[in-house]
Amino acid sequence: MTIYALSSGPGISGIAVIRVSGKNTAKVIKKLTGSKLPRPRMATLKKFNKNGGKDLIDEGVIIWFPAPNSYTGEDLAEFHVHGSRAVINAMHLAISKVKNCRLAEPGEFTKRAFQNGRINLLKAESISDLISAETEIQRKQALKVMSGKSSDKFNSWREKLLKILSHVEAKIDFPDEDLPKNIIKGIQKISNGVLHEIKKTLNDQKVGERIREGFKIAIIGPPNSGKSSLLNYLSKRDAAIVSEIAGTTRDVIETHLNLDGYPVIVSDTAGIRSSKNEIEKKGIKIALKRAEDADLRLIIVSAKKVDFSSVLRNLLTKNAILVLNKSDLVTGKSNSKFKKYEHVLISIKKDLNLNKLISKIKSKLKNKFTTTEDILITRERHRQNLINCMHHLEKFQKKKLVNDFDRAAEDLRLATRHLGMIVGKVDVEELLGSIFNDFCIGK
């Protein structure tokens, strides 16, 4: 089937780009323009008519990309028209009248590019990440993956494992022939090297995933300590309801922020206290789970009426900042028992020392996002496949090659398969739906 969709953003705009890809693309061009195909890869001014007639839809630019030199590897055309809903709907309707043409599914253009060998799976994912990028650091990471460095590294490991797998399989095919000692040493050296590099890559503090998904900050504390007020202050809007009534927040409220180019997700949670209310108890349970999963916890308590439970004290690890709010209500020095914790004395109501708190948060962010190595892992599926590859390599190394070639070969096959699944070198049909459904329609 030939697919079509609006590839520029929805809504009213000066220009809209409608993309068409598939065998009937040339037919669509001839039908809408009533003329022969334009010169390839040249912007050509044309009038676009309904169903090949004289009923004008719009006048705009068409660019024709014959296969295989196109984004999808198929015949592809881009119609640049004025960006009103009426023009876009009329263009879509006219294209749909051409036989075997249908509206594209989310990510289908990129999916076809992958299936036709124009890009690998990592580049497809990085295109999606680039489209979704909200901060500078996310944009740079997506472009690094698009450049192919990650793919080159994964493919390099895979090729090394395939090389030693060929030696092991040769021994299986010719059992009477002994492998030379230098080849056995080479097998051990290569597998050790790949395993060492994979372990080093996995020990990356999940920086790539943090950049892509956002640095998770959970605001935790007892009721009426100022959690929702702090969320509203950081997000510069009324994201959460602020009330004197304790227990107002029952569910988790999230807001996405851009702090100095770093993507951040801040969560306001239910107040931690003993409660008999079933709904509030569920909210507290969710709050504690969110605190455990967070990259940084802001434990906020009132400086005047300290409610410092053992639950909150246990959450004060190195990935936490103790926030003493309502300092305007306190006279004299703060309680000395807080000195051993990293803390900030603030007043949200009077806007006191909030700049110090934000500086501490930014410092934590920079430390978490700092890495001296190129980032290879940006998604959980990359990490899981690398972990599986590592496990099979470790099993391979434990086997005595001389006595256990069959099982050793299977461990190597599975290790190479998991590396192949990262870049799409093996059958990954079961992954494609989940990956490309995250794309917008038209990409």
**Fraction of residues in helix:** 40-55%
- Average pLDDT, rounded to a whole number, is 84
Strand content: 15-25%
Which class best fits the helix and strand makeup? alpha/beta
Shape: flat
Question: What would you note in describing this structure?
Answer:
By secondary structure, this protein is an alpha/beta fold. The chain folds into three domains: 2-104, Probable tRNA modification gtpase trme, domain 1 (Gyrase A, domain 2); 124-204 and 376-436, Four Helix Bundle (Hemerythrin (Met), subunit A), CATH 1.20.120.430; 215-369, Rossmann fold (3-Layer(aba) Sandwich). Helix content is 45%, strand content 17%. It has helices at 25-33, 85-96, 108-115, 121-132, 136-146, 149-173, 181-202, 207-213, 227-235, 278-293, 310-314, 354-369, 380-398, 405-423, 429-436; strands at 2-6, 13-21, 44-49, 56-65, 76-83, 101-103, 215-220, 253-259, 262-268, 296-302, 320-325, 343-345. Strands 3-4-5-2-1-6 form a six-stranded mixed sheet. Strands 8-9-7-10-11-12 form a six-stranded mixed sheet, sandwiched between helices. It starts with a strand and ends in a 7-residue tail after the last helix. The relative contact order is 0.12.
Question: What's a quick, concise take on this entry?
Answer:
The chain has 443 residues and is of the alpha/beta class.
Notable traits:
single chain; 443 residues; alpha/beta; Gyrase A, domain 2; Four Helix Bundle (Hemerythrin (Met), subunit A); Rossmann fold; 3 domains; six-stranded mixed sheet; 45% helix
Layout of strands and helices, then pairs:
Elements: E1 2-6, E2 13-21, H1 25-33, E3 44-49, E4 56-65, E5 76-83, H2 85-96, E6 101-103, H3 108-115, H4 121-132, H5 136-146, H6 149-173, H7 181-202, H8 207-213, E7 215-220, H9 227-235, E8 253-259, E9 262-268, H10 278-293, E10 296-302, H11 310-314, E11 320-325, E12 343-345, H12 354-369, H13 380-398, H14 405-423, H15 429-436
Parallel strand pairs: 1-6, 7-9, 7-10, 10-11, 11-12
Antiparallel strand pairs: 1-2, 2-5, 3-4, 4-5, 8-9
Helix pairs in contact: 4-5, 6-7, 6-14, 7-13, 13-14
